[in-house]
Write a structure and sequence with these properties.
By secondary structure, the chain is of the alpha+beta class. The chain has helices spanning about 10-30, 35-45, 80-90, 145-150, 155-165, and strands at about 55-60, 65-70, 105-115, 120, 130-135, 140-145, 180-185, 185-190. The protein is built from five helices and eight strands.
Length: about 190
């Protein structure tokens, strides 16, 4: 990842983990929304957290996936985006039951902070393990984070096939008729803090 992609330092990472934990706990205990006081405090201590960034939060209970939601538009401070994503991932991912209060002690999460995307014109430009992909065609859109392909041992054609499927795009649609973008992520694991 190049210098211009603004890696967050250890202090910022720790602050984001704290914000995400607070948002997850508020979501699970149904005590507050995701506009928490700790967000402004984190930004006050770490001004880089005011930078607009896209992000995803992936929640695990007993090391099993229980939610993964994010925002792909970098319009708000990353601390606010992380809080919203964490709150929603624990409660609103339609693929899973909401996390229960008794599961909090067994909960871990991973934050994926996205770099600005770049347009991809050929599958040869895609690097498995480095690139996450976003595909758009008409009103259909799908996104897969970089670690998905690595974790499943996919090659580029398999990665693209799963991306098409996630977006609901007919596999016969040529890649040239879609808008394909790649991005990288900085992964922040709750285990590390």
């Amino acid at each position: 990842m190049s210098e211009e992609k603004k890696l967050l330092d250890a202090s910022c990472q720790k602050a984001l983990v704290e914000v995400a934990w607070a948002a997850i706990e508020a979501s699970v205990r149904d005590t507050a929304g995701y506009d928490l006081d700790c967000i402004d405090e984190a930004i006050g201590r770490n001004p880089a957290l005011a930078d607009p960034r896209a992000a995803f939060t992936t929640v695990y209970v007993n090391q099993e996936l229980r939610g993964c939601l994010g925002e792909i538009r970098a319009e708000d401070p990353v601390a606010r985006v992380v809080a919203r994503c964490a709150w929603r991932a624990a409660r609103l991912d339609p693929r899973f039951d909401p996390v229960r209060p008794d599961e909090l002690a067994r909960l871990d999460f991973k934050l994926s902070i996205l770099t600005p995307s770049r347009r991809i014109h050929s599958p040869a430009e895609i690097v498995i393990g480095r690139d996450g992909l976003l595909i758009e065609h008409d009103y259909q859109r799908g996104l897969l984070l970089p670690d998905v392909a690595s974790e499943h041992g996919w090659d580029v054609p398999t990665f693209l096939a799963h991306l098409y499927r996630k977006a609901g795009i007919d596999p016969s649609v040529p890649l040239g008729e879609t808008r394909l973008s790649a991005f990288e992520t900085q992964i922040i694991d709750s285990h590390d803090f």
